[in-house]
Hints:
This protein has about 600 residues and is α/β, with parallel strands linked by helices. Helix content is about 30%, strand content about 15%.
Amino acid sequence: MSSDKKFCQTNKCLMVILVALIAAIAIVCVVTFTDEDAREKANKKAALKWWQTSIVYQIYPRSFQDSDGDGTGDLRGIRSRLGYVSSLGVGAVWLSPFYKSPMRDFGYDVQNYTEVDPLFGNMTDFESLMQEAKSKKLRVILDFVPNHTSNESYWFYESERGNPKYKDYYIWSDGLTCPSGCTDTGGRQPPNNWLSVFGGSAWKWNGIRNKFYYHAFLDSQPDLNLRNENVQKELEEVLRFWLRKGVDGFRADALKFMFEAKNVSQDEVGLRDTFTWYETDNHNLTTNLPDVYDILKNWRGVLEEFANDKFLIAESYGISNEVRNQYYDHGSIPFNFALIQYLNKSCNALCVKSVIKNSLADLSPSYWPNFVIGNHDNSRVANRFGVEMIDAFNMLLLTLPGTPTSYYGEEIGMRDTFYSYKETKDPAGLNFNETLYQDHTRDPERSPMQWNDILNAGFSNGTPWLHVNKNYKLINVKTEQLAKQSHLNVYTQLAKLRQNSAFTYNDLTFVDVDGNPEQILSYIRTQGAAKYLVVLNFGHSYANDVDLSDSVGSDRGRIVVNAMSGYLPNTTISLKQITLSRGQGLVVQVL
Ligand code: NOJ
Ligand code: MG
Protein backbone atom coordinates (compact mmCIF):
# COMPACT_ATOMS: atom_id res chain seq x y z
CA MET A 1 0.00 0.00 0.00
CA SER A 2 1.51 3.20 -1.17
CA SER A 3 1.77 5.89 1.36
CA ASP A 4 -0.24 8.27 -0.87
CA LYS A 5 -3.28 5.93 -1.13
CA LYS A 6 -6.48 7.86 -0.25
CA PHE A 7 -7.93 6.98 3.21
CA CYS A 8 -10.70 4.35 3.20
CA GLN A 9 -11.89 4.04 -0.36
CA THR A 10 -13.56 0.58 -0.10
CA ASN A 11 -17.27 -0.08 0.81
CA LYS A 12 -16.22 -2.30 3.67
CA CYS A 13 -14.19 0.43 5.17
CA LEU A 14 -17.09 2.91 4.80
CA MET A 15 -19.40 0.45 6.56
CA VAL A 16 -16.97 0.11 9.45
CA ILE A 17 -16.82 3.87 9.81
CA LEU A 18 -20.62 4.17 9.70
CA VAL A 19 -21.07 1.57 12.43
CA ALA A 20 -18.39 3.20 14.53
CA LEU A 21 -20.08 6.57 14.08
CA ILE A 22 -23.50 5.22 15.16
CA ALA A 23 -21.92 3.56 18.18
CA ALA A 24 -20.16 6.78 19.13
CA ILE A 25 -23.41 8.76 18.85
CA ALA A 26 -25.18 6.15 21.00
CA ILE A 27 -22.47 6.35 23.67
CA VAL A 28 -22.60 10.14 23.69
CA CYS A 29 -26.40 9.98 24.06
CA VAL A 30 -26.27 7.54 26.97
CA VAL A 31 -23.61 9.56 28.74
CA THR A 32 -25.46 12.82 28.11
CA PHE A 33 -28.79 11.50 29.34
CA THR A 34 -27.28 9.92 32.44
CA ASP A 35 -25.40 13.13 33.02
CA GLU A 36 -28.54 15.10 32.47
CA ASP A 37 -30.33 13.05 35.09
CA ALA A 38 -27.56 13.71 37.53
CA ARG A 39 -27.44 17.36 36.53
CA GLU A 40 -31.15 17.72 37.01
CA LYS A 41 -30.79 16.30 40.50
CA ALA A 42 -27.83 18.52 41.23
CA ASN A 43 -29.65 21.56 39.87
CA LYS A 44 -32.64 20.80 41.98
CA LYS A 45 -30.39 20.64 44.99
CA ALA A 46 -28.49 23.75 43.98
CA ALA A 47 -31.76 25.56 43.37
CA LEU A 48 -32.50 25.51 47.06
CA LYS A 49 -31.09 28.44 48.93
CA TRP A 50 -29.20 27.89 52.17
CA TRP A 51 -32.12 29.08 54.26
CA GLN A 52 -34.33 26.44 52.69
CA THR A 53 -32.15 23.65 53.98
CA SER A 54 -31.18 25.18 57.34
CA ILE A 55 -32.64 25.18 60.79
CA VAL A 56 -32.55 28.67 62.30
CA TYR A 57 -31.48 28.77 65.96
CA GLN A 58 -32.50 31.87 67.90
CA ILE A 59 -30.07 33.20 70.49
CA TYR A 60 -31.17 35.77 73.05
CA PRO A 61 -27.74 37.33 73.71
CA ARG A 62 -28.41 38.40 77.32
CA SER A 63 -29.07 34.80 78.29
CA PHE A 64 -26.81 32.56 76.23
CA GLN A 65 -23.27 32.80 77.62
CA ASP A 66 -21.55 35.43 79.74
CA SER A 67 -17.81 35.72 79.10
CA ASP A 68 -16.82 38.53 81.48
CA GLY A 69 -18.64 37.69 84.69
CA ASP A 70 -21.02 40.66 84.70
CA GLY A 71 -24.00 38.31 84.71
CA THR A 72 -25.24 39.23 81.22
CA GLY A 73 -24.52 37.16 78.15
CA ASP A 74 -22.35 38.74 75.45
CA LEU A 75 -20.92 38.34 71.96
CA ARG A 76 -17.70 36.70 73.12
CA GLY A 77 -19.82 34.24 75.06
CA ILE A 78 -21.86 33.43 71.98
CA ARG A 79 -18.69 33.01 69.94
CA SER A 80 -17.31 30.54 72.44
CA ARG A 81 -20.45 28.42 72.10
CA LEU A 82 -20.66 28.29 68.32
CA GLY A 83 -19.04 24.85 68.38
CA TYR A 84 -22.02 23.59 70.35
CA VAL A 85 -24.48 25.38 68.08
CA SER A 86 -22.92 23.85 65.02
CA SER A 87 -22.89 20.40 66.65
CA LEU A 88 -26.67 20.64 66.88
CA GLY A 89 -26.86 20.49 63.11
CA VAL A 90 -28.47 23.89 62.69
CA GLY A 91 -27.42 26.06 59.77
CA ALA A 92 -28.02 29.58 61.00
CA VAL A 93 -28.18 31.66 64.15
CA TRP A 94 -30.53 34.58 64.63
CA LEU A 95 -29.20 37.00 67.21
CA SER A 96 -31.75 39.11 69.09
CA PRO A 97 -30.59 42.76 69.39
CA PHE A 98 -27.12 43.53 70.78
CA TYR A 99 -27.06 47.17 69.63
CA LYS A 100 -26.48 50.20 71.82
CA SER A 101 -29.58 50.53 73.97
CA PRO A 102 -30.78 51.82 77.34
CA MET A 103 -32.34 48.33 77.66
CA ARG A 104 -35.82 49.42 78.66
CA ASP A 105 -37.08 46.60 76.41
CA PHE A 106 -33.77 44.71 76.63
CA GLY A 107 -32.39 45.81 73.31
CA TYR A 108 -35.61 46.22 71.31
CA ASP A 109 -35.24 49.91 72.17
CA VAL A 110 -32.30 50.75 69.93
CA GLN A 111 -30.25 53.86 70.62
CA ASN A 112 -27.79 53.32 67.79
CA TYR A 113 -28.42 50.72 65.09
CA THR A 114 -24.78 50.40 64.08
CA GLU A 115 -23.07 50.27 67.45
CA VAL A 116 -22.60 47.29 69.76
CA ASP A 117 -23.78 47.93 73.31
CA PRO A 118 -20.78 47.71 75.69
CA LEU A 119 -22.75 45.21 77.75
CA PHE A 120 -22.41 42.79 74.82
CA GLY A 121 -18.86 43.76 73.76
CA ASN A 122 -17.64 45.80 70.82
CA MET A 123 -17.47 45.73 67.03
CA THR A 124 -14.29 43.66 67.05
CA ASP A 125 -16.12 41.04 69.11
CA PHE A 126 -18.89 41.05 66.53
CA GLU A 127 -16.41 40.68 63.69
CA SER A 128 -14.69 37.77 65.44
CA LEU A 129 -18.07 36.16 66.00
CA MET A 130 -18.80 36.50 62.28
CA GLN A 131 -15.45 34.96 61.39
CA GLU A 132 -15.97 32.06 63.73
CA ALA A 133 -19.49 31.50 62.44
CA LYS A 134 -18.26 31.47 58.83
CA SER A 135 -15.51 29.04 59.69
CA LYS A 136 -18.14 26.75 61.15
CA LYS A 137 -20.41 27.25 58.13
CA LEU A 138 -23.04 28.89 60.26
CA ARG A 139 -25.08 31.71 58.73
CA VAL A 140 -25.77 34.79 60.85
CA ILE A 141 -29.12 36.58 60.90
CA LEU A 142 -29.51 39.85 62.79
CA ASP A 143 -32.55 41.36 64.43
CA PHE A 144 -33.66 44.54 62.71
CA VAL A 145 -36.00 46.88 64.62
CA PRO A 146 -37.36 49.38 62.11
CA ASN A 147 -40.66 50.39 63.71
CA HIS A 148 -39.22 52.32 66.62
CA THR A 149 -36.00 53.50 68.23
CA SER A 150 -35.17 54.30 71.83
CA ASN A 151 -36.26 57.73 73.04
CA GLU A 152 -32.57 58.13 73.90
CA SER A 153 -31.44 57.88 70.29
CA TYR A 154 -29.74 60.78 68.55
CA TRP A 155 -32.61 60.94 66.06
CA PHE A 156 -35.17 61.34 68.80
CA TYR A 157 -33.15 64.01 70.65
CA GLU A 158 -32.88 66.01 67.48
CA SER A 159 -36.52 65.44 66.64
CA GLU A 160 -37.83 66.64 69.99
CA ARG A 161 -35.66 69.74 69.63
CA GLY A 162 -37.27 70.39 66.26
CA ASN A 163 -34.04 70.12 64.20
CA PRO A 164 -35.44 70.54 60.65
CA LYS A 165 -33.62 67.43 59.39
CA TYR A 166 -35.09 65.21 62.11
CA LYS A 167 -38.32 66.88 63.16
CA ASP A 168 -40.49 64.50 61.10
CA TYR A 169 -38.53 61.36 61.93
CA TYR A 170 -41.22 60.42 64.47
CA ILE A 171 -45.00 60.75 64.66
CA TRP A 172 -45.86 63.96 66.44
CA SER A 173 -49.28 65.42 67.21
CA ASP A 174 -50.51 68.54 68.99
CA GLY A 175 -53.33 66.48 70.44
CA LEU A 176 -56.65 68.02 71.43
CA THR A 177 -57.64 70.68 73.89
CA CYS A 178 -58.22 69.05 77.21
CA PRO A 179 -61.61 69.98 78.70
CA SER A 180 -60.11 70.27 82.19
CA GLY A 181 -56.89 69.48 84.00
CA CYS A 182 -54.09 68.02 81.86
CA THR A 183 -51.63 70.33 83.58
CA ASP A 184 -48.75 67.90 82.91
CA THR A 185 -49.49 67.87 79.23
CA GLY A 186 -49.76 71.57 78.50
CA GLY A 187 -53.56 71.47 78.72
CA ARG A 188 -53.69 69.00 75.84
CA GLN A 189 -54.88 65.41 75.56
CA PRO A 190 -53.98 62.64 73.07
CA PRO A 191 -55.50 63.07 69.60
CA ASN A 192 -57.28 59.71 69.67
CA ASN A 193 -57.88 56.47 71.58
CA TRP A 194 -55.03 54.45 70.02
CA LEU A 195 -53.48 51.99 72.44
CA SER A 196 -49.98 50.73 73.12
CA VAL A 197 -49.32 46.98 72.99
CA PHE A 198 -47.80 47.20 76.46
CA GLY A 199 -50.82 49.02 77.91
CA GLY A 200 -52.32 52.51 78.11
CA SER A 201 -52.50 55.27 75.52
CA ALA A 202 -50.05 55.03 72.62
CA TRP A 203 -49.42 58.78 72.91
CA LYS A 204 -46.87 60.35 75.24
CA TRP A 205 -46.53 64.05 75.94
CA ASN A 206 -43.10 65.51 75.25
CA GLY A 207 -42.43 68.72 77.17
CA ILE A 208 -39.53 69.78 74.93
CA ARG A 209 -41.39 69.66 71.64
CA ASN A 210 -44.71 70.38 73.39
CA LYS A 211 -46.41 67.68 71.38
CA PHE A 212 -47.46 64.09 71.83
CA TYR A 213 -45.51 61.33 70.10
CA TYR A 214 -46.85 57.94 69.10
CA HIS A 215 -45.41 54.68 70.49
CA ALA A 216 -46.86 51.27 69.65
CA PHE A 217 -44.79 49.71 72.47
CA LEU A 218 -43.21 51.39 75.53
CA ASP A 219 -43.18 55.17 75.76
CA SER A 220 -39.41 54.80 75.62
CA GLN A 221 -39.86 53.28 72.12
CA PRO A 222 -41.18 56.11 69.91
CA ASP A 223 -42.43 54.94 66.51
CA LEU A 224 -40.47 56.12 63.51
CA ASN A 225 -42.32 57.98 60.79
CA LEU A 226 -41.82 55.51 57.95
CA ARG A 227 -43.53 57.91 55.53
CA ASN A 228 -40.46 60.09 55.75
CA GLU A 229 -38.11 59.14 52.90
CA ASN A 230 -35.05 60.09 54.90
CA VAL A 231 -36.06 57.64 57.60
CA GLN A 232 -36.44 54.97 54.94
CA LYS A 233 -32.99 55.77 53.56
CA GLU A 234 -31.41 55.75 57.01
CA LEU A 235 -32.84 52.29 57.67
CA GLU A 236 -31.63 51.00 54.32
CA GLU A 237 -28.16 52.24 55.26
CA VAL A 238 -28.41 50.28 58.50
CA LEU A 239 -29.05 47.13 56.47
CA ARG A 240 -26.08 47.91 54.22
CA PHE A 241 -23.86 48.50 57.24
CA TRP A 242 -24.44 44.99 58.56
CA LEU A 243 -24.49 43.38 55.12
CA ARG A 244 -21.02 44.80 54.56
CA LYS A 245 -19.99 42.97 57.71
CA GLY A 246 -21.11 39.77 56.04
CA VAL A 247 -24.42 38.98 57.71
CA ASP A 248 -26.73 36.60 55.86
CA GLY A 249 -30.06 38.22 56.56
CA PHE A 250 -32.43 39.80 59.03
CA ARG A 251 -35.39 39.08 61.23
CA ALA A 252 -37.50 42.24 61.02
CA ASP A 253 -39.31 43.20 64.22
CA ALA A 254 -42.93 44.28 64.65
CA LEU A 255 -43.67 44.89 60.98
CA LYS A 256 -47.42 45.11 61.28
CA PHE A 257 -46.92 48.26 63.38
CA MET A 258 -44.85 50.10 60.79
CA PHE A 259 -47.58 52.46 59.58
CA GLU A 260 -50.51 54.20 61.20
CA ALA A 261 -53.33 56.18 59.58
CA LYS A 262 -52.14 59.63 58.50
CA ASN A 263 -55.24 61.22 59.90
CA VAL A 264 -54.85 60.98 63.66
CA SER A 265 -58.22 62.52 64.38
CA GLN A 266 -59.90 59.12 63.97
CA ASP A 267 -60.53 56.75 66.85
CA GLU A 268 -60.23 52.99 66.53
CA VAL A 269 -63.62 51.40 67.04
CA GLY A 270 -64.49 48.76 69.61
CA LEU A 271 -61.29 48.76 71.67
CA ARG A 272 -61.58 47.07 75.03
CA ASP A 273 -59.22 47.08 78.00
CA THR A 274 -55.84 47.05 76.31
CA PHE A 275 -54.15 44.91 78.97
CA THR A 276 -56.28 41.91 78.22
CA TRP A 277 -57.34 42.35 74.66
CA TYR A 278 -54.68 44.06 72.59
CA GLU A 279 -54.06 41.23 70.13
CA THR A 280 -57.68 40.14 69.85
CA ASP A 281 -59.06 43.62 69.18
CA ASN A 282 -59.06 45.00 65.70
CA HIS A 283 -56.51 47.79 65.29
CA ASN A 284 -57.37 48.79 61.76
CA LEU A 285 -55.78 52.24 61.92
CA THR A 286 -52.53 51.27 63.58
CA THR A 287 -51.66 47.80 62.29
CA ASN A 288 -51.32 46.05 58.93
CA LEU A 289 -51.45 49.16 56.76
CA PRO A 290 -50.39 48.14 53.24
CA ASP A 291 -47.68 50.81 53.02
CA VAL A 292 -45.24 48.33 54.56
CA TYR A 293 -45.10 46.25 51.38
CA ASP A 294 -43.14 48.82 49.38
CA ILE A 295 -40.71 49.11 52.23
CA LEU A 296 -40.18 45.35 52.16
CA LYS A 297 -39.57 45.49 48.43
CA ASN A 298 -36.96 48.21 48.92
CA TRP A 299 -35.21 46.15 51.59
CA ARG A 300 -35.16 43.17 49.28
CA GLY A 301 -33.51 45.46 46.72
CA VAL A 302 -30.85 46.39 49.27
CA LEU A 303 -30.23 42.72 50.10
CA GLU A 304 -29.88 41.93 46.40
CA GLU A 305 -27.14 44.54 46.11
CA PHE A 306 -25.09 42.02 48.07
CA ALA A 307 -26.37 38.59 47.03
CA ASN A 308 -29.49 36.84 45.86
CA ASP A 309 -29.68 34.43 48.77
CA LYS A 310 -30.10 36.78 51.71
CA PHE A 311 -32.79 35.90 54.21
CA LEU A 312 -35.53 38.25 55.38
CA ILE A 313 -38.08 36.95 57.86
CA ALA A 314 -40.80 39.22 59.16
CA GLU A 315 -42.43 39.28 62.56
CA SER A 316 -46.17 39.97 62.43
CA TYR A 317 -48.53 38.00 64.66
CA GLY A 318 -52.05 37.09 63.62
CA ILE A 319 -52.00 38.29 60.03
CA SER A 320 -54.58 37.16 57.47
CA ASN A 321 -53.56 34.95 54.55
CA GLU A 322 -53.94 37.93 52.22
CA VAL A 323 -51.43 39.91 54.25
CA ARG A 324 -49.17 36.87 54.50
CA ASN A 325 -49.16 36.57 50.71
CA GLN A 326 -48.25 40.22 50.32
CA TYR A 327 -45.25 39.75 52.59
CA TYR A 328 -44.13 36.90 50.36
CA ASP A 329 -44.79 38.85 47.18
CA HIS A 330 -42.65 41.72 48.42
CA GLY A 331 -39.51 39.74 49.11
CA SER A 332 -39.86 38.49 52.67
CA ILE A 333 -41.00 35.40 54.53
CA PRO A 334 -43.63 36.07 57.16
CA PHE A 335 -43.02 34.11 60.35
CA ASN A 336 -45.70 31.46 60.70
CA PHE A 337 -46.70 31.58 64.37
CA ALA A 338 -49.56 29.08 64.05
CA LEU A 339 -47.92 26.50 66.36
CA ILE A 340 -47.55 29.21 68.99
CA GLN A 341 -50.88 30.94 68.55
CA TYR A 342 -53.37 28.20 67.79
CA LEU A 343 -52.21 25.28 69.94
CA ASN A 344 -52.65 24.78 73.66
CA LYS A 345 -52.49 22.03 76.26
CA SER A 346 -55.90 20.64 75.47
CA CYS A 347 -55.12 20.31 71.78
CA ASN A 348 -55.07 16.72 70.49
CA ALA A 349 -53.71 15.19 67.27
CA LEU A 350 -56.67 16.40 65.22
CA CYS A 351 -56.12 19.91 66.40
CA VAL A 352 -52.37 19.85 65.63
CA LYS A 353 -53.20 18.40 62.23
CA SER A 354 -55.67 21.13 61.41
CA VAL A 355 -53.21 23.85 62.39
CA ILE A 356 -50.56 22.36 60.09
CA LYS A 357 -53.10 21.85 57.32
CA ASN A 358 -54.22 25.47 57.55
CA SER A 359 -50.64 26.70 57.54
CA LEU A 360 -49.91 24.85 54.33
CA ALA A 361 -53.28 25.36 52.66
CA ASP A 362 -53.31 27.86 49.82
CA LEU A 363 -49.63 28.41 50.15
CA SER A 364 -48.61 28.71 46.53
CA PRO A 365 -45.52 26.65 45.57
CA SER A 366 -43.44 29.81 45.33
CA TYR A 367 -44.18 30.70 48.97
CA TRP A 368 -41.67 28.89 51.13
CA PRO A 369 -43.25 27.60 54.36
CA ASN A 370 -41.81 28.04 57.83
CA PHE A 371 -42.71 26.92 61.33
CA VAL A 372 -41.70 28.23 64.73
CA ILE A 373 -42.57 26.78 68.08
CA GLY A 374 -41.06 29.23 70.58
CA ASN A 375 -39.23 32.50 71.04
CA HIS A 376 -38.30 35.16 73.60
CA ASP A 377 -41.89 36.44 73.76
CA ASN A 378 -43.65 33.16 74.52
CA SER A 379 -43.65 30.49 77.20
CA ARG A 380 -41.47 27.48 76.51
CA VAL A 381 -42.84 24.28 74.96
CA ALA A 382 -42.50 22.34 78.25
CA ASN A 383 -44.81 24.83 79.96
CA ARG A 384 -47.26 25.38 77.16
CA PHE A 385 -47.82 21.70 76.44
CA GLY A 386 -46.30 19.73 79.32
CA VAL A 387 -42.81 18.26 79.78
CA GLU A 388 -43.86 14.97 78.19
CA MET A 389 -44.42 16.82 74.90
CA ILE A 390 -40.92 18.29 74.45
CA ASP A 391 -39.60 15.67 72.02
CA ALA A 392 -42.86 15.41 70.16
CA PHE A 393 -42.81 19.12 69.38
CA ASN A 394 -39.15 19.10 68.39
CA MET A 395 -39.91 16.13 66.15
CA LEU A 396 -42.87 17.91 64.65
CA LEU A 397 -40.98 21.16 64.06
CA LEU A 398 -37.99 19.45 62.46
CA THR A 399 -39.95 17.15 60.18
CA LEU A 400 -42.40 19.69 58.77
CA PRO A 401 -41.80 21.32 55.38
CA GLY A 402 -40.09 24.70 55.15
CA THR A 403 -37.65 26.48 57.42
CA PRO A 404 -37.89 25.68 61.14
CA THR A 405 -36.85 28.16 63.83
CA SER A 406 -35.80 26.82 67.25
CA TYR A 407 -35.41 28.94 70.36
CA TYR A 408 -32.24 28.37 72.41
CA GLY A 409 -32.67 25.77 75.16
CA GLU A 410 -35.63 24.02 73.52
CA GLU A 411 -33.23 21.35 72.31
CA ILE A 412 -32.53 20.35 75.92
CA GLY A 413 -36.14 20.84 77.03
CA MET A 414 -35.59 23.91 79.19
CA ARG A 415 -38.55 25.02 81.29
CA ASP A 416 -39.89 28.46 82.08
CA THR A 417 -38.31 29.86 85.23
CA PHE A 418 -40.34 31.42 88.01
CA TYR A 419 -39.44 34.97 89.01
CA SER A 420 -41.21 36.74 91.83
CA TYR A 421 -42.69 40.16 91.17
CA LYS A 422 -39.67 41.69 92.89
CA GLU A 423 -37.28 39.77 90.66
CA THR A 424 -39.15 40.64 87.48
CA LYS A 425 -37.24 42.64 84.86
CA ASP A 426 -39.49 42.59 81.81
CA PRO A 427 -41.45 45.84 81.33
CA ALA A 428 -44.30 43.84 79.81
CA GLY A 429 -44.69 42.20 83.24
CA LEU A 430 -43.96 45.26 85.33
CA ASN A 431 -46.80 47.16 83.65
CA PHE A 432 -49.09 45.00 85.79
CA ASN A 433 -49.54 44.43 89.49
CA GLU A 434 -48.34 41.47 91.50
CA THR A 435 -51.50 39.50 90.81
CA LEU A 436 -51.42 39.87 87.04
CA TYR A 437 -47.75 40.19 86.07
CA GLN A 438 -47.27 36.45 85.48
CA ASP A 439 -49.71 36.52 82.58
CA HIS A 440 -47.56 39.07 80.80
CA THR A 441 -43.92 38.78 81.86
CA ARG A 442 -41.53 37.25 79.34
CA ASP A 443 -38.72 36.71 81.85
CA PRO A 444 -39.59 33.01 82.43
CA GLU A 445 -38.64 32.03 78.87
CA ARG A 446 -35.52 34.22 78.95
CA SER A 447 -33.70 32.46 81.81
CA PRO A 448 -30.02 31.69 81.21
CA MET A 449 -28.97 28.77 79.04
CA GLN A 450 -28.17 25.67 81.09
CA TRP A 451 -24.79 24.36 80.02
CA ASN A 452 -23.73 22.15 82.91
CA ASP A 453 -24.41 21.28 86.54
CA ILE A 454 -21.93 23.64 88.18
CA LEU A 455 -22.13 27.31 89.21
CA ASN A 456 -24.98 29.14 87.44
CA ALA A 457 -25.25 26.22 85.03
CA GLY A 458 -22.04 27.40 83.35
CA PHE A 459 -23.75 30.56 82.13
CA SER A 460 -21.77 33.08 84.18
CA ASN A 461 -19.22 33.40 86.97
CA GLY A 462 -21.06 36.46 88.22
CA THR A 463 -24.64 37.01 89.30
CA PRO A 464 -26.90 36.29 86.32
CA TRP A 465 -29.25 39.10 85.29
CA LEU A 466 -32.07 36.58 85.72
CA HIS A 467 -31.28 33.68 87.99
CA VAL A 468 -30.78 30.25 86.49
CA ASN A 469 -33.61 27.72 86.72
CA LYS A 470 -33.26 25.56 89.82
CA ASN A 471 -33.58 22.42 87.71
CA TYR A 472 -30.20 23.03 86.03
CA LYS A 473 -28.49 20.11 87.79
CA LEU A 474 -30.71 17.74 85.85
CA ILE A 475 -31.48 19.72 82.74
CA ASN A 476 -28.30 20.92 81.05
CA VAL A 477 -26.29 20.36 77.89
CA LYS A 478 -23.49 18.37 79.49
CA THR A 479 -25.76 15.87 81.23
CA GLU A 480 -27.82 15.42 78.10
CA GLN A 481 -24.74 14.95 75.95
CA LEU A 482 -23.61 12.11 78.21
CA ALA A 483 -27.01 10.46 78.52
CA LYS A 484 -27.96 7.68 76.12
CA GLN A 485 -31.44 9.03 75.59
CA SER A 486 -32.09 12.75 75.98
CA HIS A 487 -33.97 15.63 74.39
CA LEU A 488 -30.66 16.85 73.00
CA ASN A 489 -29.99 13.49 71.49
CA VAL A 490 -33.36 13.37 69.78
CA TYR A 491 -32.91 16.94 68.54
CA THR A 492 -29.50 16.35 66.96
CA GLN A 493 -30.66 13.13 65.30
CA LEU A 494 -33.61 14.96 63.81
CA ALA A 495 -31.46 17.86 62.65
CA LYS A 496 -29.16 15.42 60.91
CA LEU A 497 -32.04 13.54 59.33
CA ARG A 498 -33.45 16.83 58.08
CA GLN A 499 -30.54 17.16 55.68
CA ASN A 500 -32.12 14.32 53.74
CA SER A 501 -33.94 15.86 50.80
CA ALA A 502 -37.15 14.02 51.72
CA PHE A 503 -37.53 16.67 54.39
CA THR A 504 -36.64 19.69 52.31
CA TYR A 505 -38.24 19.13 48.93
CA ASN A 506 -41.52 17.43 49.00
CA ASP A 507 -44.95 18.17 50.25
CA LEU A 508 -46.24 16.48 53.28
CA THR A 509 -48.85 13.73 52.98
CA PHE A 510 -51.01 13.04 56.00
CA VAL A 511 -51.58 9.37 56.77
CA ASP A 512 -55.09 8.23 57.64
CA VAL A 513 -55.09 6.98 61.19
CA ASP A 514 -58.29 4.97 61.36
CA GLY A 515 -59.48 4.49 64.89
CA ASN A 516 -56.99 6.86 66.54
CA PRO A 517 -57.19 10.20 64.77
CA GLU A 518 -57.48 12.08 68.05
CA GLN A 519 -54.31 10.53 69.41
CA ILE A 520 -51.98 9.92 66.52
CA LEU A 521 -50.72 12.44 64.03
CA SER A 522 -48.91 10.79 61.16
CA TYR A 523 -47.51 11.97 57.88
CA ILE A 524 -45.07 10.92 55.19
CA ARG A 525 -42.14 12.85 53.78
CA THR A 526 -40.70 11.38 50.64
CA GLN A 527 -38.13 11.96 47.93
CA GLY A 528 -37.13 9.46 45.26
CA ALA A 529 -36.88 6.06 46.84
CA ALA A 530 -36.72 7.40 50.42
CA LYS A 531 -40.01 7.39 52.27
CA TYR A 532 -40.15 8.53 55.87
CA LEU A 533 -43.13 8.08 58.11
CA VAL A 534 -43.57 10.33 61.14
CA VAL A 535 -45.82 9.05 63.91
CA LEU A 536 -46.57 11.23 66.95
CA ASN A 537 -48.88 10.73 69.89
CA PHE A 538 -50.49 14.12 70.53
CA GLY A 539 -53.41 12.46 72.29
CA HIS A 540 -53.97 12.53 76.00
CA SER A 541 -53.41 8.84 76.60
CA TYR A 542 -51.63 5.70 75.49
CA ALA A 543 -52.22 4.63 71.88
CA ASN A 544 -52.18 0.89 71.49
CA ASP A 545 -51.79 -1.24 68.36
CA VAL A 546 -52.13 1.54 65.84
CA ASP A 547 -52.29 0.02 62.37
CA LEU A 548 -50.90 2.30 59.67
CA SER A 549 -49.98 -0.43 57.19
CA ASP A 550 -52.93 0.06 54.82
CA SER A 551 -52.65 3.82 54.71
CA VAL A 552 -48.88 3.65 54.22
CA GLY A 553 -49.03 0.73 51.79
CA SER A 554 -46.38 -1.29 53.61
CA ASP A 555 -46.20 -3.57 56.63
CA ARG A 556 -42.72 -2.80 57.79
CA GLY A 557 -40.43 0.07 58.63
CA ARG A 558 -37.01 0.78 60.11
CA ILE A 559 -36.80 3.06 63.16
CA VAL A 560 -34.70 6.10 62.30
CA VAL A 561 -35.42 8.42 65.23
CA ASN A 562 -37.18 7.41 68.36
CA ALA A 563 -38.50 10.09 70.68
CA MET A 564 -38.71 8.60 74.15
CA SER A 565 -40.48 5.48 72.96
CA GLY A 566 -39.55 1.89 73.71
CA TYR A 567 -38.50 1.20 70.13
CA LEU A 568 -34.82 0.77 69.41
CA PRO A 569 -33.15 2.70 66.59
CA ASN A 570 -32.43 0.72 63.45
CA THR A 571 -34.79 -2.10 64.34
CA THR A 572 -37.48 -3.22 61.97
CA ILE A 573 -41.02 -2.81 63.23
CA SER A 574 -44.46 -3.79 62.05
CA LEU A 575 -46.56 -0.87 60.88
CA LYS A 576 -49.63 -2.88 61.86
CA GLN A 577 -49.03 -2.49 65.55
CA ILE A 578 -47.47 0.73 66.75
CA THR A 579 -47.73 1.62 70.41
CA LEU A 580 -46.91 5.07 71.71
CA SER A 581 -47.58 6.95 74.95
CA ARG A 582 -48.59 10.58 74.92
CA GLY A 583 -45.64 12.64 73.71
CA GLN A 584 -43.81 9.74 72.14
CA GLY A 585 -42.86 9.83 68.50
CA LEU A 586 -41.10 7.94 65.76
CA VAL A 587 -39.55 8.60 62.42
CA VAL A 588 -39.64 5.36 60.46
CA GLN A 589 -38.15 4.63 57.07
CA VAL A 590 -40.82 2.74 55.21
CA LEU A 591 -39.53 -0.57 53.85
C1 NOJ B 1 -41.30 42.16 69.18
C2 NOJ B 1 -40.16 41.62 69.98
O1 NOJ B 1 -40.04 40.26 69.72
C3 NOJ B 1 -40.46 41.93 71.43
O2 NOJ B 1 -39.56 41.28 72.29
C4 NOJ B 1 -40.41 43.40 71.61
O3 NOJ B 1 -40.79 43.73 72.92
C5 NOJ B 1 -41.37 44.10 70.63
N1 NOJ B 1 -41.31 43.57 69.30
C6 NOJ B 1 -41.04 45.56 70.54
O4 NOJ B 1 -39.85 45.73 69.85
MG1 MG C 1 -45.28 52.22 63.70
